Amino acid sequence: MKEKRNLHLKVQELCDCYATTDPLKEMSVVRQESDLDEAALKWLALAALHGVNNNADKISIARGSDGSVKVIASYRRTDLPSPGSAVGEKIISAVREITHIEQDKGKLPLSLGIRDSSLDLTIKIRRKKDEERVTLKFPE
Predict the structure, then answer these.
(1) What whole-number distance in Å separates Cα of residue 62 and Cα of residue 57?
(2) E strands, 22-86, in order
């Protein structure tokens, strides 16, 4: 039987684990991970670290109706490395499980403990037809 740990705690542990790495570099290879659930949580942790390190306003991951996944950071209108379709779907699912947002639209605060401090993000989820978007909003 596979142990189902608290996803929020696992993301915090991964933030601690990857705090001294280059999050953007690690994000670019997450699509190659064999464990999709682990890859999704790793990507969330790396996105939070990247946002903090680079003073991002927000980072969004969107899945289109064709299944393609796109990531956009608002501090500069550029695409970040996509985690791929399979991992992208798992990321959205993990965020929904962590936040318990089941409706088409929702917004909640999420506190992440990173090393000896904490980070308060705002998580927004929006689903329209076959498209879905998760946005991590960083504090100013």
Answers:
(1) 17
(2) 58-63, 69-73, 78-79
- Please give the span between the terminal C-alpha atoms of the chain, in angstroms, as a whole number: 42
Give the pTM. Answer: 0.67
CA-wise closest residue to 48 among 124, 93, 132, 111: 111
Which residues have C-beta within 8 Å of that of residue 22, sequence separation ≥ 6? none
Tokens found for residue 61: 């991951």
SS3 78: strand
| Whole-angstrom distance, CA of residue 7 vs CA of residue 98 | 6
Phi, psi values for residue 132, rounded to 5°:
-145, 145
Cα dihedral 127, 131, 136, 140 sign: negative
**For the chain (length 140 residues), average pLDDT per consecutive 10?**
71 92 92 93 93 86 91 71 89 91 92 83 91 87
Q: Shortest CA distance to 11 belongs to which of 37, 29, 32?
A: 37
**Whether 105 contacts 126, CB under 8 Å:** yes
Of all helices (H) and strands (E), which one includes residue 23?
A: helix 23-29
Q: What per-residue confidence (pLDDT) applies to 1? A: 42
